Amino acid sequence: MAAEELVPVTGQTDEALVDRVRSGDCAAFDTLYRRYFARIYRFLDRRLNNRADVEETVQEVFISLFSSLDGFRGEAPFAAWVFGLTRRTLANRFKRKRAATVPLEADDSEFGAENAQGATRDADPHLAYEFSERLERLQRGVDDLSADQWELFRLRHLENRSIEEIAQQLAKSEDAVKSHLYRARKVLLAR
Amino acid sequence: MLIAPAVGTGKNAPEVEALCRTLVAAGLSAAAIDLPLQGERASAKLSARIAHCASGRALGAADQLLWREYLRQVACDLDATRAALAHGGGVRPGAVGCAAFEPGAAAALAWAANAPDLRPCPPLAATADPRTVAASLREQLS
Q1: N or C terminus: which one in chain B shows less Cβ crowding within 10 Å?
Q2: Chain B contacts of A62, Cβ < 8 Å?
C-alpha cells in the first residue's frame, strides 16, 4: 500500500483531495463526493420544481465534475469551481426544457384537442409523474391562499380570463387585480 | 425484467421498445429507464468515453474517475427502479431479471451481479431478434 493512502482524507482541504483523486485515490473520491453531495442537492432543490429533476441534475453535475476534474487548475477555490459547473449544468437543463416543442396542428381546434387528449393518455410515465408532483405541490400552495387570492388565481390561470375581464367581474381596478395576483403567485412560489 | 439501454441511446431506442413489447406479449413485465447520459441527458462525447471505459481496455486516471462515478449512478438508478417496482408494482424482488444492451451492458450487469434476489442476464445485441431474446430471457426467469 502506498504511503499516501494511509493519510486520513477527512480533514484535508478540497484541493488536497482533488490531487489525491487525480492520482486514483478512491477514499478521496468518496470524501469529495460526500462533502459536496448535500450542498449541490440543496442548491438545485431551491431552483427546480420536482425531486426527479433535482436528482437527475445532481447526477449530471457529478458526471461533469468527475469527467473534467483535470480542468480544475486551482486558480479559484474548488467550491467556486464546483458551483460554477453546477450553474452551467442547470442552465443547460433549462435550455433543453425550453426547447421542447409541440406540433403546429396542436392548436385549439377540435383536431388539436383530440391530439392533446391522446397525448395525455399516452404520456411518458416520467412526464406524468412530474406533472402529478407539480400538481401536488401547487395543491399544497393553494391551501395557503386566501379565498380572494384563490378566486383570482383560478380565473386568471385555470380559466385563462384576461385581467380586464377579471377586474370587471370582481368590481376591482385592473391594477388591484394585478397586485393581488402578484401576491398570490408569490405565496405559491414560496412552496 | 429491467432493461438497460445501450450507452448513447435511451429507453425509446427501437431495439428497447421492440424487446419490451415482445416481453409483455410473452407474459412478462418489462421496465426500461434512461440511465445517466441517456435520453434527455445524452452526451455524445461522454457516451463515447463511457463506451471506451466499458470495453475493458486499460483506463487513464480521468476515465477511471468517470467510470467509477458512472457505475455508482447506474447502480443508484437501477436500485431505485427495483425498489419502486417492488413497492408500487407488486413485483417480487426475486422474480426480477436485468438485461442490458451493448455497448455498456457491463455497468448494469455489474450492479445486477451484486444485487440480492436479482438475476443478471447475458448482454443483448441491438441486432438480435426480440422474439428469440424474449424466449431466452423468459427461460432464464422461469
Answers
A1: C
A2: 69, 73
Q: Are B77 and B95 in contact (CB under 8 A)?
A: no
The span from the CA of B56 to the CA of B46, in Å, is 16
The partner residue sitting opposite A63, judged by closest CB among B36, B61, B64, is: B36
What is the DSSP code (8-state) at residue B67? H
CB-CB under 8 Å, B41 with A60? yes
Count Cα neighbours of A89 within 13 Å in the Cβ-side half-sphere: 31
Q: Are the Cβ atoms of A59 and B70 closer than 8 angstroms? A: no
The bridge status of strand B31-32 relative to strand B2-4 is parallel
What residues contact residue B134 under an 8 Å CB cut-off, 6+ apart?
Answer: B19, B22, B23, B25, B26, B28
3-state class (DSSP) for residue B63 = helix
Does residue B64 belong to the interface with chain A, where contact is any CB pair within 8 Å? yes
Q: Which of B40, B62, B66 sits opposite A96 (nearest CB)?
A: B40
B68 and A21 within 8 Å at the Cβ level: the answer is no
Q: What is the pTM of this model?
A: 0.66
Q: How far apart are CA A135 and CA A141, in angstroms?
A: 10
Contact state of B41 with A59 under an 8 Å Cβ cutoff: yes
Chain A residue nearest residue B76, CA to CA: A59
Contact A67 B64 (CB under 8 A): no
- For the beta carbon of residue B115, count every other beta carbon within 10 angstroms: 18
Cis peptide bond upstream of B122, omega within 30: no
